[in-house]
DNA sequence: GAGTTAATGAACCAAACGGTACATAATTCG
DNA sequence: CGAATTATGTACCGTTTGGTTCATTAACTC
């Protein structure tokens, strides 16, 4: 008897799980952990609330799964950055710009990080194998920084985490605080022309900082 | 008959109101809007839940009052910054450092802003007279920027809001994302020595950026 | 194709939660 | 003082919410 292709099957654990995860990501990012409703997540899928408990165990475990998947995605994006053959200053600018683009492309991830910070990263700490997730981003910058220092082009009193933090801070702010900042200063942070301008500013600032004096 | 001093009175509308506001600020900043419990706020005060509804009308209006008070505080702090007699570069560095200090001194305000951003600033928009709250911070930088440009010391392709955004982004990130960033990179963002270092980095970066070329 | 297991759905439940009704005591004011 | 007003506490209510029970069907195994 011909087996149905996985995509045509009515019962498909992987699809159901993935759908719940995708919808849950959006709902948690929109309403926060407490504000997210299990019923709403279920309603937005083609399955029922029962499946959340069947596959994940409960609201909190679902949130943990969402967090883990989100961080796995960003790690992959970071590892795909390739700036090895550019002069140090250009390489740093390129890393900054790609980071900037990635943040704008995945606002739901940024919002999830905000949510997690409000809760003092208590859930993140439960996902053990996310511990040294910062390493890839740092080592990428480490290489470029070392090259710049050797060439005498970069200042020597900063490390890779310092640089990453300045870049992250700027990028995260653009997305995470666009609502309040946009309101208070009457600037639409997500408009295309504004975004291009801010992107250029980040590159200018980071390079100017590293090459100063 | 001798009237009791207000501070000794058992019934004191102002004190009750202020106490509720203070406790609510902390609870909303810790748990987010939905995560904050009206009962918890009441329990942490010397009064009862009933008073929240008597003075504010409900959970949402209490949150609005908290937001408004928090933003009023930061406006006052910004207006107290005085950098008029310093050379432009030193003045910008000073503004950046004072902003940095203020953020670290009021983490609950930063967290409240994060909460509000998760909700797309929908509550902030309801507090009408907070609309152009950004103006003071911008005009302070505007003056310094103008002086720097006239002296030929500063670049001319950025405005006050650009500068304020870079400073804000860095300062907000330090406080708002200290939990996740600290976890992923093993750096305690709130430790004294780390904080001093980050403070200096911000000044270096902003001045280098503005004076580049 | 019979038996077993994985996956799913509908209805239901107890606790938590925001909010209120009612009673009452402190304060003010004529 | 005594009436009117302001402030406060207790007990309770209806709804929402995360979670569960029980039954059932699709899919896989041999």
TrEMBL record, chains A, B:
Protein name listed in UniProt: TetR/AcrR family transcriptional regulator
InterPro entries named among the record's database cross-references: Homeodomain-like_sf (IPR009057), HTH-type_TetR-like_transc_reg (IPR050109), HTH_TetR (IPR001647), NicS_C (IPR041474), Tet_transcr_reg_TetR-rel_C_sf (IPR036271)
Signal peptide per UniProt: none
Organism: Nocardioides eburneus
DNA-binding interval(s): 37-56
A Pfam short name: TetR_N
SUPFAM superfamilies according to UniProt: Homeodomain-like, Tetracyclin repressor-like, C-terminal domain
Domain HTH tetR-type: from-to ranges: 14-74
Keywords: DNA-binding
